[in-house]
Amino acid sequence: VAPYVSEVAGWLPEDVDATAPVCAAAAGPSGRILLADDNRDMREYLRRLLSGAYAVRAVADGAAALAAIRDDRPDLVIADVVMPRLDGLELVRALRAEPDTRTLPVILLSAQAGEAARVEGIAAGATDYVLKPFHARELLARVTARLEIGRLAREIFERERRLRTSLLDGMADRYYAFDAEWRYTELNAKAEAQLRALGKDPAAMIGKVLWDEFPHSPGERRLRSAMLDRQPTVDEHYHAPLGEWVQNRIEPSAGGGVVVFQRYITEAKRLEHDLRRMATYLADAEALSHTGTWAWNPTTGELFWSAEHFKILGLDAARVTPTYDVGIAAIHPDDRAMLETSFTRAVAHRQPYALSCRVVRPDGEVRHIRTLARPVLGESGDLLEYVGTVIDLTDHVRTEEALRRSREELAHVTRVMSLGALTASIGHDLNQFVVAIVANGTACLHWLAREQPNLDEATAAVRRIMRDAELIGDVVGNVRAFLGKAAQPSTDLDLAAVIREVRELVEPEATRHRVVIEETLAEGLPRARGVRIEVQQVLLNLMTNAIDAMAGITDGPRVVRVRAEPDSRARATAVLVAIEDSGTGFAGVDERRLYDAFYTTKPHGLGMGLSIAHSIVERHGGRLWATPNAVHGVTFQFMLPVEPLP
Amino acid sequence: VSAAEPVVFVVDDSRSVREALMSLLGSVGLRAQAFRTAEEFLSAVTADAPACAVLDVRLPGLSGLDLQQRLLAAGQHIPIVFITAHGTVPISVEAMKGGAVEFLVKPFPQHALLDALERALAARHRQQQQRAETADLRRRYEALTAREREVMAHVVAGLLNKQIAGRLGLSEVTVKVHRARAMRKMSIDSLAELVRAADRLSAEPGRDQARRTWIMPRAGG
Question: Are the CB atoms for A274 and A285 separated by under 8 Å?
């Protein structure tokens, strides 16, 4: 041993001061070194050499070194190759076998030169191999370098570990890693929290076997098969104790184990369920209401149609891909231009739109639809898509049409009936003219047959015949016009003229019932907008009603007063017509039912008159009402809006 | 056209009918006057006019039937021809009960109206003749003395001269003298004629006193 020490002493550089740093690495708290050498001198020498910059522990053999390292891991190990109990090579192998020390830098010192010994040392796992005798500076440089490399490696490792932890902890999922024997090897923070919630200590779980901790887990079967199959697997199951739906994504890992990403999907399941139910409801609602849905993306041109949308167009969803062109092709040719114009304008201004048109199904059937749509705009106001509905109104339109027709029919029937009631009077009127014409004719013949024919008288008689014939023509014309069935257009009505026409129609009836009709028509009445024949019918119904109302009057006047004036309350934007009778009033009449169809107080009435009058006035945008008079009788009034001045 | 010519009053609310009837009546040589209402008619009625009337049943205000009743109530027995567009049996029965000459439903054949008017005018003529005769009788009756009237009443009542003498406390001869004088004054030749004259006078409206005198001699008088 002594020659070694002298030898070593000779290597000790004169200028090396053990207390002085020899390199940059010695400047800071730079590391802890375990030194193993069975030679006491050598140990002391090295301790002296290194103690200036590092914390050095020294032991005398490999076994002691291993124990010391396990007890307190140093940053660097310097070991002699030749040592009792456990030599340097064996020490390195032992350290490399343990996970904690697998990367611990070890510098072997050996007097044995040569390639083979050096390779043997490196192969055993040594980080460096230094031949004795060595120069103090070289050893220090190597120690410093190894410590620095180790520090950097640890830093990198630590950084990587932190990154991995933060990644795993940042995941929404719980992360569990297991080795091939189902031992826990790694957990993220969420998994730890979960284990804590389940009454486990996360720190104690590593190394424990999953099935020991959680026997009869509902996910067990799929986990085991994933481990065997080495295939990524997704398993969803309901975990009754937690009351949660659980999803496990299982991936085989490199070491023969698996990693499990676990999340609760109860909310998602509920949403999915809700969504499916909503979709079902929506489909039902669409089918019941004949409403289809569509969405159109102007950027991609993508078009979505719901099942009902396909059905309304009579197209097969399995065969037809909805496109703008397919949609346009389904529109009735007469409506295409209108639809495209409206649609283009709406898109250009990013406005909602609504329009009605017809579609032609492939089998030729025409359906009436109404489409409503609105733009969906992004945050910056850019157009994302248009969503809209399509409603099949065909049945509705047909019902409306039928309703309109039956209303016209009813109006016609009631006109026939009201005229039927007047027939006796009209007949009387015509009869008078017939009597007059025959008498005039006879007189004319007599005047001519005289010895001295009286041509003046004869001519006068013929003139009267012609006049009466014209009057007959008027009566017939009135009746025919009134019975006219065809719907007439609205026109500007001179109500005074209309009132006079109807008065002529009811005058004989009034005379028959000894009723006097008085009219007060304001000068220059504004013109009301309306369908002449319908307004005539209103007046006819109200006037014949008024006449009928006085049938029972024996001791008082029988007067119908007809007034027409600008409606003062409405600032002359309406014309008010009042028909006032001096009849029996509302005695025994349910006023609330006055305008109901088929409500009548007359033994032979059908009860349609007021109901028809009411609906006609309402259709004209007016109002019809009745008020009892102060003394006797009732006044019916109606108001018709005046055509606004252009 | 003299005042004696008969005038026909026409009432119809239709101007056409009024004018036509005026012309028709004119063409057959009848004077006519037309009215729109019954009220106008009544205000124009005089003792002599009209000779007859053509009335529409339905009129504003008073109806034709009302007018007929008013005239009867006033002792005006004007022959009436009704014309109507609404002929019902009850109305026609009422009209005929009131003494209407004819009830025509419009339209009617012209000759039916003219025939009816002819009958109405004839009736009127007869009426006027009778009225003239009655007036004559009345005048002569007024010329009788009280005793002569008394005797005549008993004669008309069917009593014999002797009975009359007994009743009046006269001799049979005196009764004969009064009777002959009364017959002469009345220009009556037979008892039958005298009875008819008494009938006619008693039928005169407003002559109740005479009627009683003639028909029911005062008992015991």
Answer: no
Put simply, whether B216 touches A (Cβ < 8 Å) is no
Q: pLDDT exceeding 90 applies to what percent of chain B? A: 33
Lowest mean pLDDT segment, chosen from A76-90, A280-294, A394-408: A394-408
Shortest CA gap B6–chain A (Å): 19
- A11-15, A182-186, A345-349, A450-454: which has the minimum mean pLDDT? A11-15
User: Does residue B207 have a pLDDT over 50?
Assistant: no
Chain position carrying tokens 């016009």? A481
Contact B23 A432 (CB under 8 A): no
- Name the minimum distance, in Å, from the CA of A430 to any CA of chain B: 10
Interatomic CA distance for residues A461 and B20, integer angstroms = 7
CA-based nearest distance A521→chain B, Å: 24
Chain B environment of A557 (Cβ under 8 Å): none
Report DSSP state, residue A113: -
Q: Please indicate whether, in this complex, the C-beta atoms of B27 and A442 are within 8 angstroms of each other.
A: yes
Q: What is the pTM of this model?
A: 0.44
Q: Rounded distance, CA B64 to CA B68, Å?
A: 6
State pLDDT tens for residues B41-84. 999 888 777 889 999 988 878 889 999 999 988 888 889 999 98
Q: ∠A245-A251-A255 over CA atoms, to 5°?
A: 140
| Min Cα–Cα distance to chain A from B116, Å | 15
pLDDT at res. A642: 83
Sheet order of strands, A516-521 included: A516-521, A559-566, A574-581, A634-641, A623-628
Mean of pLDDT values over A455-481:
87
For B87, the closest chain A residue by CA position comes to A428
A353-360 and A383-392 beta bridge pairing: unpaired
Q: Can you tell me the distance from the alpha carbon of A584 to that of A546, in angstroms, rounded to the nearest whole number?
A: 10
Closest CA to B64 of B47, B87, B46: B87
The span from the CA of B6 to the CA of B4, in Å, is 6
How many Cα neighbours within 13 Å face the side chain of B52? 26
Residue B24 to residue A464, Cβ atoms within 8 A: no
Mutation for testing the A interface, residue in B19, B39, B81, B111 having most A CBs under 10 Å:
B19
With a CB cutoff of 8 Å and minimum separation 6, the contacts of B19 are A436, A440, A464, B34
Pick the closest to residue A137 from A27, A263, A245, A11 (CA basis).
A11
CB proximity B172 to A under 8 Å: no
